[in-house]
Amino acid sequence: MAPQVKLVYFDARGRAELLRLILHQSGVKFEDQRVTFADWPALKPKMPFSSLPFLEIDGKAYNESMCLCRFAARRHNLIGKTDVDALYVDQILTQSDELRTKQIKIKFNKDEAEKATLAKAYAEEQLPQFLGNMEKRLKDNKTGFFIGSAITMAELAIYDITENDLKENAKLLDKYPMLAAVRKTVESQPNLKDYLKNRKDTPM
Hints:
204 residues; alpha+beta; 2 domains; 4-stranded mixed beta sheet; Glutathione transferase; Glutathione_S-Trfase
């Protein structure tokens, strides 16, 4: 019997969307429970480690978004075929998460002067460097994928992390054709097409 799986997070992509993509791509049936920000203060003390997202498997809850992504990708064979493949995938996951942290610091910064400084560094230095590094990795592998010749968590992570910036600039990937192709590859996956087409549009 398949395990009973529930993912709990806010009604946003945020730090849970990559895990959603992994689960959908893997054909895992799960309950996608969305928590409102208004309800969060009352729910927080009841949550493992007082944070979201958490993944519940057969009634037992587990925390930390990147740990959950690695666990799910490993369980469902989305980390490549070798330890070195898994290392490459993990590098891309870590780089993507570091970029997300920069995005969050900008979005929720209440100091307008500091926010402008961070946004300038992000747009002019950090984001182009990240995209350039990812494009180079794709060119080096020569298959259209980051490792091997099949989709892994790496492609899903890139799809997810570029969402916010593409909302701001639809031409963001014009200079990075291989990254643009990765997004199309993700969108064409049979287990992801309907979800991506019909999912709710959220700010983050």
